[in-house]
Amino acid sequence: MRGAPPSVGPRRVDAVILPDEPNRRASFTDYPTLKGRNVIVVQTKAQRMGMYLMGQALFSARLALARGAKSVRSILLCTAPDSVLLPLLKDFPEVEVWVYDEKSGTCRRAVAA
């Protein structure tokens, strides 16, 4: 976080999408605040979803809300879901799990049975 005290570590996301803004690549200086914006945060790993990636997706959304975002979707993008962990996200509808299939180059949303 910019301007944070030394006791606060960096917060990294793989992408921040502002769906109501022009479709382009932007930098932090273009949008220095999330206040009042609809936000999509994306966390990715080129592996099966795990607790680490789940935590990143969940807390990225919470941090964006804490920074004043009007609404937040959090996308967890991985190469395979985990049948034990996936149902645990039911209580967090802002977190969506998407699975990338390298063979076909497509993604599908994973939902718990």
Task: Describe this protein with a few key phrases.
5-stranded mixed β-sheet; 5 strands; 27% strand; single chain; alpha/beta; 113 residues; 14% helix
Describe the overall structure.
- The protein has one domain.
- It is built from one helix and five strands; from the N terminus they run ββαβββ.
- The chain starts with 14 loop residues before the first strand and ends with a strand.
- It has a five-stranded mixed sheet with strand order 1-2-3-4-5, covered by helices on one side.
- Helix 1 links the parallel strand 2 (38-44) and strand 3 (71-78).
- By secondary structure, it is an alpha/beta fold.
- Helix content is 14%, strand content 27%.
State the gist of this model.
The chain is built from one helix and five strands. With 113 residues, it is α/β, with parallel strands linked by helices.
Per-chain topology:
Blueprint: E1 15-17, E2 38-44, H1 51-66, E3 71-78, E4 95-101, E5 106-110
Parallel strand pairs: 2-3, 3-4
Antiparallel strand pairs: 1-2, 4-5
